[in-house]
Design the sequence.
């Protein structure tokens, strides 16, 4: 009886879920049938049913490609550095913002840093390219200090840092808001008690603030593990050029060139599938870790 | 993102010109054919006199029919009840010639190509086929599955159609469809203007400096040097990270060709074998020279990083006075230069020349599709006649067709010409430059406006150019016409060597290795030009290229052309 009643009471929730489920089934689950292309020499006119099966050929070929190692390293390096920077910067920023008492100023800063999150990489890349050209702002500033102008976007030394800095700049406002929300959840009584006990500001930070938002930090950190192989296609694609393939070519851009430009559908699907499998493993691990350290559970 | 909207507009615009212009130019060739067409449509030649007087548009007395495979028209706009197989165009062919065409099968785009290759292996061929690639044509010829059309073409092709095919000179139109001297297929035909890449210079800067247009690469370097002094914040020649591409802006096809280097094309080596142009020794010389120019600051320092929009911005802002590009760029992006600075002038030249004083320019494939006839089909002449009637109708030389109310109706709803039986777009090879030259002649008073009566495009160009002459720089569209008529059009009519690749197809190994090899190639070339690698890096590149699959590809390409 209780179960029945529960179902009746929660029916409208399920109904609200329905459109979303339909969309996911239609656009995320059904297309998964396409992964079999990874084991085929796919010919569009013959379709999945008619194309010849080649077993693991696409995968062995992928591992033999001279570029594979480089691309894998690039992807991992760029993504991991982005994750680390993507945790530290917003955290530090949120803590600083938290210390500000002027609510008006706080709000404005919060909104302004959040803005780039809404712009697409196509636009931001245009901005970045213009900032970094030889007669752009950055090089003009460098020249005040007598430095030679640098072609940042053509330099294998600068390209990766640039990707990471620009990515953090675009996205840190979003995480900052989550941290700020977590900070407001800390009970002010704890601060009062600590102050009465004679704690300094740094001590407050270490003994009240940080422990208070620890679950949020752990949660965001572990959940971002699932992104270890997502180095950001749009960003790299709109900024890179053949001169920096060596440091900037990532799995996604490579799949784009192989699959859509050279039309090797089988190989491109194989690379994408491998990436997804590794991604799945990482997501499972991160979920377990999140459950263990932050008591985060979906199921 | 390489193809912004403006670019698309230009391409459409150009296409429109070419189509509308067809009517005009054909007048030069087609005069003789028209009378016979209107008068002789009913009469069929008596058998005894057949040799002497064949009417290329003559009606068959007994119905003739053939089956065919035909590419589908995407998003086809036809009146209710009409189909790709049965529409006004096909009905007009049927009523004119008594030829009935049925479709064995149709498919769209890539799917057609795939299905076509499949049908080859099944051996079950329709009477007439549209062949999408040179490779497929070659395999049909090798398998001895198709009819030799040499005699049929000689006897039955209309003078109008022959005029189009002969407009290339030197039999270039039939280069890919002729095997051992036999014409095995009827090809389509692209305009020359699709490929020729010209050198564009700021004429006002040249005039200020009292310099002549640079004939050679060394003279070009001098001009760039002078430009740099003339406008200190200018960046020199523009470029694109894709060093060579057909019908594109900022690429350097003709610049490489001035060194006898044809990157991305297949060229004959000393022994008659085909070799890849990017690994030829001439390429090293060309790269070394470009490296020199780059180091001196005569080429945009950031050409490899900039996207096309940024290079266009340099052109528009007067930061660059030299670029390579096709004939149509006065409409975009050169018009922006004039918008920003009414004193600006651009001019096009068929330069730089190679050491023999010849301007070389690499060309895209001249044919993109063919019509072939299955071996053993009884009436190949019917196919020829259908093409005669189709071409005459398409280019507006058929008064009966043009006057028909259905034609008007189809025009109104925007029905595609591809609803005609054969998907062969046969353009007059010298269309653009001839129109420009004619408009120029009238403009300069060498001819009267009467000459423009039958040539719609030239007339339109003349009108616009005249508007520019009367009120200079008032309207950038008029200005663009003026530049095309006076500069880029005539430049394309200059004597030049149109360099065709010996092979445009794709081989098995290319499919799997091309991405690796292309990456290696573009990385190496850019590094050499930018000076991050030494010129000797080229030799390492050639070795690597060969090892990573280049040798295999070369062997396959040679096998494909029967070497």
Sequence:
């Amino acid at each position: 009886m209780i179960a029945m009643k529960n179902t009746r009471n929660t029916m409208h929730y399920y109904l609200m879920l329905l459109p979303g489920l339909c969309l996911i089934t239609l656009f995320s689950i059904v297309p998964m049938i396409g992964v079999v292309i990874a084991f085929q020499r796919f010919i569009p006119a013959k379709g999945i049913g008619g194309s010849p099966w080649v077993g693991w050929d696409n995968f062995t070929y992928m591992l033999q490609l001279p570029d594979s190692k480089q691309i894998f390293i690039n992807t991992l390096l760029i993504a991991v550095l982005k994750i680390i920077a993507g945790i530290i910067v917003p955290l530090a920023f949120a803590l600083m913002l938290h210390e500000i008492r002027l609510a008006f100023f706080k709000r404005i800063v919060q909104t302004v840093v959040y803005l780039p999150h809404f712009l697409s990489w196509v636009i931001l890349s245009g901005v970045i390219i213009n900032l970094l050209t030889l007669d752009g702002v950055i090089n003009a500033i460098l020249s005040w200090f007598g430095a030679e102008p640098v072609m940042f976007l053509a330099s294998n030394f600068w390209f990766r840092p640039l990707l990471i800095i620009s990515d953090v700049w675009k996205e840190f406002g979003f995480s900052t808001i989550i941290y700020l929300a977590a900070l407001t959840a800390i009970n002010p009584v704890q601060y009062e008690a600590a102050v009465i006990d004679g704690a300094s500001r740094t001590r407050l930070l270490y003994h009240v603030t940080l422990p208070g938002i620890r679950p949020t930090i752990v949660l965001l950190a572990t959940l971002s593990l699932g992104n270890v192989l997502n180095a950001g296609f749009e960003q790299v694609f709109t900024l890179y050029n053949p001169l920096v393939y060596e440091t900037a070519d990532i799995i996604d851009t490579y799949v784009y060139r192989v699959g859509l430009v050279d039309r090797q559908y089988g190989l491109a699907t194989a690379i994408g599938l491998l990436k997804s499998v590794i991604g799945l493993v990482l997501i499972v691990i991160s979920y377990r870790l999140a459950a263990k350290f932050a008591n985060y559970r979906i199921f | 993102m390489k193809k912004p909207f403006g670019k698309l507009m230009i391409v459409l615009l150009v296409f429109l010109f070419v189509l509308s212009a067809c009517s005009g130019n054909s007048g030069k060739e087609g005069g003789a054919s028209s009378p016979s067409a209107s008068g002789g449509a009913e009469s069929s030649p008596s058998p005894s006199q057949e040799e002497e007087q064949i009417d290329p548009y003559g009606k068959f007395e007994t119905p003739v029919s053939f089956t065919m495979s035909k590419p589908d028209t995407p998003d086809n706009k036809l009146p209710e009840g009409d189909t790709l197989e049965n529409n006004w165009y096909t009905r007009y062919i049927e009523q004119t010639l008594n030829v009935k065409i049925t479709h064995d099968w149709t498919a769209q785009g890539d799917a057609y190509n795939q299905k076509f290759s499949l049908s080859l292996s099944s051996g079950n061929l329709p009477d007439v086929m549209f062949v999408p690639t040179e490779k497929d044509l070659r395999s049909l010829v090798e398998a001895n599955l198709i009819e030799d059309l040499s005699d049929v073409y000689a006897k039955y092709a209309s003078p109008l159609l022959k005029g189009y095919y002969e407009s290339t000179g030197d039999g270039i139109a039939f280069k890919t469809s002729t095997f051992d001297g036999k014409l095995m297929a009827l090809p389509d035909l692209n305009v020359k203007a699709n490929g020729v890449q010209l050198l564009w210079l700021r004429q006002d800067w040249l005039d200020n400096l009292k310099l002549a247009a640079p004939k050679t690469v060394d003279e070009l370097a001098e001009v760039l040097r002078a430009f740099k002094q003339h406008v200190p914040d200018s960046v020199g020649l523009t470029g694109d990270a894709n060093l060579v591409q057909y019908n594109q802006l900022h690429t350097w096809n003709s610049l490489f060709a001035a060194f006898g280097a044809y990157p991305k094309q297949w060229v004959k080596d000393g022994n008659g074998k085909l070799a890849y142009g990017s690994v030829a020794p001439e390429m090293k010389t060309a790269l070394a020279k470009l490296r020199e120019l780059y180091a001196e600051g005569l080429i945009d320092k950031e050409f490899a990083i900039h996207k096309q929009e940024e290079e266009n911005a340099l052109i528009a802002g007067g930061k660059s006075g030299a670029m390579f590009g096709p004939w149509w760029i006065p409409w975009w992006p050169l018009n922006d230069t004039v918008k920003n600075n009414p004193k600006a002038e651009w001019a096009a030249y068929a330069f730089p020349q190679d050491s023999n004083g010849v301007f070389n320019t690499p060309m895209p494939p001249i044919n993109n599709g063919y019509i072939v006839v299955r071996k053993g089909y009884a009436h190949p002449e019917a196919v020829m006649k259908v093409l005669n009637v189709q071409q005459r109708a398409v280019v507006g030389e058929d008064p009966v067709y043009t006057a028909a109310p259905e034609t008007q109706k189809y025009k109104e709803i925007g029905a595609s010409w591809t609803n005609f039986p054969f998907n062969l777009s046969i353009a007059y090879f010298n269309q653009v430059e001839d129109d420009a030259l004619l408009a120029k002649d009238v403009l300069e008073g060498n001819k009267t406006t009467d000459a423009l009566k039958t040539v719609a495009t030239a007339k339109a160009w003349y009108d616009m150019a005249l508007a520019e002459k009367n009120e200079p720089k008032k309207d950038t569209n008029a200005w663009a016409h003026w530049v095309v008529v006076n500069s880029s059009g005539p430049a394309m009519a200059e004597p030049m060597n149109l360099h065709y690749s010996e092979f445009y197809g794709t081989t098995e190994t290319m499919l799997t290795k091309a991405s690796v090899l292309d990456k290696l190639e573009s990385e190496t070339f850019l590094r050499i030009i930018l000076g991050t690698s030494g010129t000797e890096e080229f030799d390492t590149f050639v070795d690597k290229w060969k090892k990573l699959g280049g040798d295999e590809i070369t062997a396959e390409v040679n096998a494909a052309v029967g070497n």
